[in-house]
Design brief:
The protein is of the alpha/beta class. Bound molecules: alpha-L-arabinofuranose.
Length: 494
């Protein structure tokens, strides 16, 4: 069976630019994300630059990641940055209390991370310790990485062989303060945030700091309400939100072996992002009608059981076409809410949760999620073209979800339409009324596969890749696209 949707495309001079930072990533000291993922050490036989794998560097450069969040997550509120600078052999160890209880040798620290960001051409996002730190430790870190003049922290940095500051603009003031960051109430944290934020200076960088408050867990609207009510606009640039997709939190199920009911439930939690950003934005609008403060979804993605035989604290999971569906639909939601959602970070870049890259010894593979994000990079810093349509339903038992998700943008004279069909068995035809855009020709790319459960393995790393897509027609101001079941398509037209 085939279903159809008619999409109105409504270009408007007032529509927002899709901030490229929506396409950000997250890398925590968790499992094999940093150690044994990004970082194999200078002495490794795996080709590396200052200990970071060259194949990962090349893949992330190609992906064009605009920002990278580090070092946590929950790890951030246990991290003491001074333990990760200076000669590596002198650095103290610590125990990673949240993730597997492993001993962390601090061999990957501030210099390693910020130099990596320079190599990648990506903006660093430092998530700093509030839960078990102090205002002094925090502001010393800001000074260490940002102060150009003479000061105790700039001298220390110079002693560690770095003269010029990196100029780090984006700062997270703690992480999940309602949970692993200290189990605080929003009222208590709002006061704490104001205290930290007051002492965070930009140390004469040309740009001001972008201070992000640890935000709500999923639908905790009270959290957002209190932060927006209690923190003055001049002390805050972003409010975070975390929301993961899963079958059931207590019974997450396998990342590769799932049935349709489990697929449906996962997509239900993923598509909930639409309601979450709408409702959190409505609260923010009440206190900030000028939309000065951004909503920053700095943790999102699919979360399943770890792969059999791997450390439960390492959150290593495979990545199937289900994850491609999560990525495609979630990014469309963020694009369509670009007026308020101005940054987001997929959890996590390498070997953890919905990773874009998996590694096994010297092997590396790109997941379906990588390929979706690669197709979507055309939306970075492009002007949103609002769309309106009624989606056909994807029904299962007595429930239904919208089968289609669409977003569109325009940059350098090119228009891009990203369309997702989450239906597990039905083809969908989408008719986009593009008369207003005066389009002459188009081309397409697709991520699709034979089975929803398909994934890229180390034995077959290119099973799912981005391919040319031709099942569309541009005629008399109508772009008609026919999407196979569970596929993500991006059409470029001009
Ligand atoms: O991404 C894994 C964990 O999920 C993060 O450390 C934490 O912030 C969240 O609960």
């Amino acid at each position: 069976a085939q279903q159809k949707a008619t999409v109105s495309v409504l270009p408007s001079a007032d529509s927002p630019v899709i901030n490229k930072n929506i396409y950000g990533h997250f890398s925590e000291h968790l499992g094999r994300c940093i150690y044994g993922g990004f970082y194999v050490g200078e002495k490794s036989t795996i080709p590396n630059t200052n200990g970071v794998r060259n194949d990962i560097i090349a893949a992330l450069k190609e992906l064009g990641i605009p920002n990278l969040r580090w070092p946590g997550g929950c790890f951030a509120d246990t991290y003491h940055w001074k333990d990760g600078i200076g000669p590596k052999q002198d650095r103290p160890t610590m125990v990673n209390q949240w993730w597997g209880g492993v001993t962390e040798d601090n061999s990957f620290g501030t210099h390693d991370f910020l130099d990596l960001c320079e190599t990648l051409g990506t903006e660093p996002y430092l998530a700093a310790n509030v839960g078990s730190g102090t205002v002094k430790e925090f502001t010393d870190w800001v000074a260490y990485v940002n102060h150009q003049g003479k000061s105790p922290m700039s001298e220390l940095r110079k002693k560690n062989n770095r003269d010029t500051p990196w100029g780090v603009k984006i700062w997270g003031v703690g992480n999940e303060m309602w949970g692993c960051g200290g189990n605080m109430t929003p009222e208590y944290y709002a006061n704490l945030f104001k205290q930290y934020s007051t002492f965070m200076t930009d140390w004469n960088n040309s740009d001001k700091l972008f201070r992000i408050a640890s935000g709500a867990n999923v639908a905790d609207y009270h959290w957002t309400e209190v932060l927006m009510r209690d923190i003055p606009r001049n002390l805050i640039e972003g409010v975070a939100l975390h929301s993961y997709s899963f079958v059931e939190w207590e019974k997450k199920g396998s990342s590769t072996q799932f049935d349709e009911a489990q697929y449906f439930k996962t997509m239900e939690t993923a598509l909930k992002m639409e309601e979450l950003v709408t409702k959190h934005s409505e609260i923010m609008d009440k206190y900030d009608p000028a939309k000065k403060t951004a909503l920053v979804v700095d943790e999102w993605g699919g979360w399943y059981e770890v792969e059999p035989g791997t450390n439960p604290g390492f959150l290593y999971q495979q990545n199937t076409m289900r994850d491609a569906m999560i990525a495609g639909t979630t990014l469309n939601i963020f694009n369509n809410h670009a007026d308020r959602v101005r940054m987001a970070n997929l959890a996590q870049t390498v070997n953890v949760l919905q990773a874009v890259i998996l590694t096994e010894n010297d092997k590396m593979l790109l997941t379906p999620t990588y390929h979706v994000m690669h197709m979507y990079k055309v939306h970075q810093d492009a002007k949103l073209i609002p769309v309106k349509f009624t989606s056909p339903e994807y029904k299962l038992a007595d429930k239904s979800l919208p089968a289609l998700s669409v977003s569109a943008s325009e940059k350098d004279g090119k228009k891009h339409f990203s369309i997702v069909n989450i239906h597990p068995s039905q083809t969908m035809t989408v008719e986009l009324d593009v008369k207003a855009l005066n389009l002459k020709n188009a081309s397409g790319r697709i991520v699709a596969s034979g089975k929803l459960q398909d994934f890229n393995s180390f034995a077959d790393p290119n099973k799912i890749t981005e391919k040319e897509f031709k099942d569309f027609k541009l005629k008399n101001g109508t772009l008609t696209v026919t999407l196979p079941a569970f596929s993500v398509v991006v059409i470029e037209a001009k």
